[in-house]
Design goal:
The structure holds two protein chains of two kinds.
Chain A: H1 15-31, H2 40-45, E1 50-52, H3 54-57, H4 62-65, E2 67-69, E3 78-81, E4 88-97, H5 101-104
Antiparallel strand pairs in A: 1-4, 2-4, 3-4
Chain B: E1 2-6, E2 13-18, E3 29-31, E4 41-42, E5 51-55, E6 71-75, E7 80-87, E8 99-100, E9 110-112, E10 129-134, E11 141-147, E12 151-154, E13 167-171, E14 191-193, E15 204-210, H1 216-221, E16 224-229
Parallel strand pairs in B: 7-14
Antiparallel strand pairs in B: 1-7, 2-6, 3-4, 3-5, 5-6, 7-16, 8-13, 9-12, 10-11, 10-13, 11-12, 15-16
Classes of the chains: A alpha+beta, B mainly beta.
């Protein structure tokens, strides 16, 4: 007649299962709104230079922390280590805190302006 | 000082180094530490050896447990060309002193100071550069090849006669020159000082000069010297 139906209680998790779920929820909380691999906000709190790769840059909101893109002539990126995923990249986007812009120099790229600008 | 560009035209390489001193302002530079130091240290205004790079942010050095480790972001390229505003004193933000010619010179080779101007030979400006910011020779500059207590002399004449009342800027730098190099920086390391004898200061090699000839006021406030670190640790010369 086959095997009898066995019901497994869903509320009674083993200690191992329970620990995994707790850890999982903790990870989810940490990763939500944060950059992977590190706490870039620690650097932000110290108003230090931020370098991020293309994949991580979308998770950083510079305006929220008073940061601006740092441009320099000829090549708008820098070669550095992404603060989030630790990748060394020749095309990192760089951000400087607004309080430091007068010192590090700011060379905005005005591609959208002027007669030969890319325009909108 | 700011990054102007790299000689190779590429992207700057930014590295973060442990710091053994406080960097109070971005736009300074770091040198390697002495034995026993905790990391790179803030450079000096006058003497420099073993530069590591241009600083991009600030950091506070602390040996207190619980404090964040001091780390500073540096542009470490040895071929980074630095753009340094010209100032006059140890304090940043001052304007350059103008020399007003007091004796007409039809040869176009001598500029005689007016009483109250800096003496050409104190601080010594021989082998520096003199630029005309007002008068018939506006926009021209020449290398200074000799000085006396009252006269700057150039070997290559200015194109036109130098009239009484013409105004000039004399600076202790000449690009690609064996004597007219080095930059004595202001206390905050942001600017280069005009009021210092030629050849003295931090070990920087002069790459270019930029005078804003739009007006005398512009020239006094918005002129820049471009220089490279001359004893950079990644250049592996010393």
């Amino acid at each position: 007649m086959g095997h009898p139906l066995v019901l497994v209680p869903v509320t009674g998790l083993t200690p191992r299962q329970s620990a995994r779920r707790e850890l999982g929820s903790l990870e989810a909380k940490l990763s939500y709104g944060c950059l992977p691999g590190t706490r870039v906000t620690d650097w932000v709190a110290r108003q230090q230079f931020i370098t991020l790769c293309d994949l991580c840059v979308g998770k950083f909101n510079p305006k929220k922390y008073g940061y601006e893109r740092w441009h320099q002539p000829f090549y708008p990126y820098s070669t550095s280590q992404c603060l989030a995923c630790k990748t060394v990249l020749t095309k990192c986007r760089t951000f400087t805190h607004e309080s430091l812009q007068a010192f590090v120099g700011h060379f905005p790229r005005r591609f959208g302006k002027g007669r030969w600008g890319m325009g909108h | 000082m700011n990054l102007a560009y790299l000689l190779n035209g590429g992207a700057p390489l930014i590295k973060r180094y442990k710091s053994g001193s406080t960097f109070a302002a971005a736009g300074g530079y770091a040198t390697i530490t002495a034995d026993g130091g905790a990391g790179v240290v803030l450079g000096l205004a006058t003497t420099v050896a073993d530069q590591v790079g241009l600083s991009l942010d600030t950091t506070t050095y602390s040996t207190t447990q619980g404090d964040a480790e001091a780390v500073v972001s540096l542009i470490v390229n040895p071929d980074a060309v630095l753009r340094i505003r010209m100032g006059r004193t140890a304090t940043a933000g001052t304007q350059l002193q103008v020399t007003t010619n007091s004796a007409a010179n039809t040869a176009g080779t001598g500029i005689t100071i007016t009483a109250g101007d800096d003496a050409p030979n104190s601080e010594e400006k021989d082998e520096g550069t003199i630029a005309c910011v007002s008068g018939a020779n506006l926009g021209q500059s020449r290398k200074i090849t000799s000085t006396s207590a009252t006269v700057y002399t150039v070997t290559v004449p200015f194109l036109n006669d130098i009239a009484s009342g013409d105004q000039f800027l004399a600076v202790p730098w000449t690009p690609a020159d064996v004597v007219g190099d080095n930059v004595n920086l202001t206390t905050n390391l942001q600017e280069g000082r005009q009021d210092i004898a030629v050849g003295t200061g931090a070990d920087l090699r002069i790459f270019d000069l930029e005078f804003d000839y739009a007006s005398v006021s512009h020239a006094r406030r918005q002129s820049f010297v471009y220089a490279l670190f001359d004893d950079h640790v990644w250049r592996e010369t010393t």
